[in-house]
Amino acid sequence: MKFKELKTLPSAELKDKLTELRKELMKENAQIAIGTVPKNPRKVRNAKKTIAKIEMLLARPASKPVQQPASKVPSSQVNPKGVSSQK
Question: What is the pLDDT of residues 61-73, one digit of tens each?
């Protein structure tokens, strides 16, 4: 699943998708462990990547806080080395 598609989903649906993908990955890994060749080997890789994307989205805060601009020192109080000249 593409990242843009995942970003639009609400967190409840992301959690459902995450559990579904983990179950699917567990089944694929079990097949590999007993020696059966999976129908689509790329499916394991894609499932792992999608799980990582979903976990990253769930760990991210809902909205980014707005950063305050740094306070500027008037140019008359700054020496050429960038250190304040006030004592």
Answer: 765 544 555 666 5
